[in-house]
Design brief:
Blueprint (H helix, E strand, L loop, with lengths): L2 H14 L4 H14 L3 H7 L5 H12 L13 H4 L4 H7 L1 E7 L2 E6 L5 H11 L2 E6 L2 H11 L2 H4 L16 H17 L4 E6 L3 E8 L2 E9 L3 H11 L11 E9 L2 E12 L2 E9 L1 H4 L10 H11 L4 E6 L6 H12 L6 E5 L10 E4 L8 H8 L6 E4 L5 H12 L3 E6 L6 H8 L4 H7 E6 L18 H28 L1
Helix pairs in contact: 8-10, 10-11, 15-16, 16-18
């Protein structure tokens, strides 16, 4: 960035009150050492947000903000800036009028970048600002996919780049690959009044990625449904499907779910990376005491071992890692799942299929005639499944399963509430694991923080409330037994 642009930005940052002089001085010193733009450094370090930077550009520099759908970009306009340059500088040409080229930029104050673009195109550059995700989307749509990201993405060999569908294919492929690179757990495609909102779940929190113009919304959804072998003509009923994705990072299973809403179909894509989920037990984050207790539970040759907790707390990860630990040539291991999220070598996996009445209970009956040593039931959902599962555990099989309860003691209460006899619940159960996912503190940007008196009081009261509830729950369980 030229000195003039940098000075003006520093002044605007101080005037906005978003940063103190001391913070700015420290940021400038570290930014110069890393060789990054000041704005990029501040955003990456969470000193300011991307939205705050865009607001500064609008308020202090009168640089307008744009969204992808505002301009009718043609291939001729996109060709004014080579793909390699657009990727390197993170810019996108939007309109060409009377010798002036409107360009979306991450940092319109970068005078060196403006000069380079002017010399390259021979035109006057009219800079506007946009979110990074919006610029990335446009680059993906109008340039080849290899030029839009760091990793190459496999595109179907029969796709014609001259057809209207080619940009849609590239867009979906790029979106999936970006989610894999970012280690996202889910992609959400949500219909809005005139757009398709795209969000990704990172470390348990949803983050906005971009908003896709409404005129391509239906084609994006249809493309995902085709990849997942779903009925693209059926928009009134929910559908579920799977995609086996191959990229440079290896194979990833994508679980696709559609849901009709009043504004159109909502799509959620869950990313299931086998290398990330089937981990050695010692890498799951258990304390030494809990790890040793888990190993002791897995040494049982018979009985029911339950993993409990809310949706998305890692129950499946724990079960798969336990199966991986137990997988020996001398044992016959069979699972019944809905759906089968990962294929485990050496383990027989059965997929639930409600349309042909292959329920958990029916599949489990057949499994018990297959001479199993270890059985994994994806989830105990009803009394019938609970009865067969506990009877299997009671008759010489080690059975692993999951249950939705808030704590370990609540598992027994839940089974009995389903209608299971007390003696079956107590005699078959060898252990219950209750778990939650805890977000890790970033080793690069973590900061020490001291709780205020109000916060200390709040957390102390919350802890006491939960402890009392767990004690009461445990008392109820003892009474029921």
């Amino acid at each position: 960035m030229a000195v003039l642009g940098r000075r003006r930005l520093e002044s605007a940052l101080l005037n906005s009150g978003l940063i103190s002089p001391e913070q700015l001085e420290l940021a400038l010193e570290e930014q110069r050492q890393q060789g990054k733009r000041l704005s990029k450094y501040l955003i990456e370090k969470d000193i300011i947000t991307e939205e705050q930077f865009i607001n500064i550009l609008e308020e202090y520099f009168n640089i307008p903000r744009v969204e992808p759908g505002q301009f009718n970009i043609t291939s001729e306009i996109a060709a004014l800036i080579p793909a390699e340059t657009a990727k390197r500088l993170r810019v996108m040409p939007l309109a060409h009028n009377n010798g002036q080229l409107t360009v979306a930029m991450l940092d319109p104050l970068d005078l060196n970048c403006l000069d380079d673009l002017s010399r390259l195109t021979g035109l006057d550059i009219n800079p506007v600002t946009a979110r990074e995700s919006s610029i990335n989307y446009l680059i993906t749509q109008f340039y080849s996919i290899e030029d839009a990201g760091d990793g190459k993405i496999i595109i179907e060999s029969d796709s014609d780049p001259q057809t209207d569908e080619a940009p849609v294919i590239r867009m979906v492929n790029s979106l999936i690959e970006k989610a894999i690179d970012e280690e996202a757990s889910d992609i959400h495609l949500e219909p809005d009044e005139d757009s398709l909102r795209v969000r990704m779940r990172l470390d348990g929190i949803l983050h906005d990625l971009t908003a896709i113009p409404g005129h391509v919304r239906a084609r994006i959804v249809s493309r995902v449904k085709i990849m997942a072998n779903l009925d693209i003509a059926e928009r009134r009923l929910p559908q579920d499907g799977n995609i086996e994705w191959q990229s440079n990072g290896g194979g990833v299973s994508l679980r696709v779910s559609t849901l009709p809403t009043i504004l159109g179909e909502k799509v959620v894509i869950r990313l299931l990376n086998k290398d990330k989920i089937v981990l050695p037990l010692e890498e799951l984050g258990f304390s030494r005491e809990n790890y040793n207790a888990l190993l002791e539970l897995l040494m049982n040759h018979a009985g029911l071992l339950l993993v409990t907790g809310p949706t998305g707390c890692g129950k499946t990860t724990t079960l798969y890692s336990a199966l991986h630990y137990l997988n020996r040539p001398e044992d016959n291991i069979i699972t019944v799942e809905d759906p089968v999220e990962y294929r485990l070598k050496g383990i027989n996996q059965v997929q639930v299929n409600q349309r042909i009445n292959r329920t958990f209970a029916n599949a489990l009956r057949s499994i018990l005639r297959q001479d199993p040593d270890i059985v994994m039931v994806g989830e105990i959902r009803d009394l019938e499944t609970a009865k067969i599962t506990t009877q299997a555990a009671f008759t010489g099989h080690l059975v692993l399963s999951t249950l939705h309860t808030n704590n370990a003691a609540g598992a027994v209460t839940r089974l009995i509430d389903m209608g299971l006899e007390n003696y079956l619940a107590t005699a078959s159960l060898v252990g219950v694991i209750a778990q939650r996912l805890v977000r890790k503190i970033c080793s690069h940007c973590k900061k020490e923080y001291r709780l205020s008196d109000d916060e200390k009081y709040f957390y102390k009261a919350l802890f006491q409330k939960r402890t009392t509830a767990e004690i009461n729950q445990g008392h109820q369980v003892q009474t029921l037994q």
